[in-house]
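Students often ask what a holo structure prediction actually looks like on paper. The answer is less mysterious than it sounds. You provide the chain, you provide the ligand, and the output is a string of discrete structure tokens encoding the 3D arrangement of the protein together with NAP.
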Amino acid sequence: MISLEGKVALITGASRGIGRATANCLAHLGADIAILDIDEQAAAAVDEIRAMGRKALFIHTDVASHQSVRAAVAAAEAELGPIDILVNNAGIVKNIAPIAKMTPEAWQKELGVNLTGPFNLIQAIAPGMAERGWGRIVNISSAAAKGGLFNQAGYAATKSGLLGLTQNVTLEYAGKGITCNAILPGVIGTENVMAMPGEIFDQAVRMVPTGRVGEPKEVAQLIAFLCSDLAGYINGVDILIDGGAALNTVVLGSRKALRN
Ligand code: NAP
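The corresponding structure tokens follow.
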């Protein structure tokens, strides 16, 4: 049975989507929650967690800014106590263009939020975890870290970079009671994904052997397990959660003929 009773979790980008589902799931398992986000909707997420009887707060923070992250972590620890669990979830996927047309500003923006952001948070939080001898860090990467994503070179590169960061955090901190792992979601039914044009959505679902998109809470439950004592020996790995979409789905011949 997973319990996060007495733990303090900091989750970035938890105003909605996977982050919000994670905040709810970890709170349900007993953790108090700090949400760092640039979206004011996070206030509603905080209300939801407080209604479960847990402590929660929202600090408006741009994860790409080293100074804002330092100030936010200090404010969260002053209110809730030392951070035991860090979930680097905030990410942007808005820079869609062929490489030849991608602007340097858009590239830098994605790098700032998706890769420098987790670095800023880890640098601010991991040393304290090490002093206390226990910590859990989960970085939300993407299936795009391994397979790329057409016209999203910036996004895919930052998500691959996050795997390198994950491995190095493990090498530096594994002996201090800290685990650091990455999760690679496939297509998950968040607000953004559900708002995709029907044709693109259907095409995405056709690539998933499980036959549907994942639910944010399914990703949250995997994160919760990695944050628990049960997962103390899982370290430095990346875990796909994609309904089998990374598999080779080519069928040589008709499925009907092959069954006979
Ligand atoms: P989402 O719904 O877009 O939510 C992300 C949250 O992060 C939003 O509240 C967003 O605020 C916030 N944010 C953006 N930039 C920020 C910054 N600089 N500092 C702090 N917060 C910031 O995301 P999601 O779809 O749940 O995805 C969560 C994570 O999973 C991301 O890292 C994403 O790359 C990854 N992922 C998602 C999928 C999927 O299918 N959904 C698949 C693979 C990987 P705004 O609303 O103001 O932008």
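The first helix runs from residue 17 to 28.
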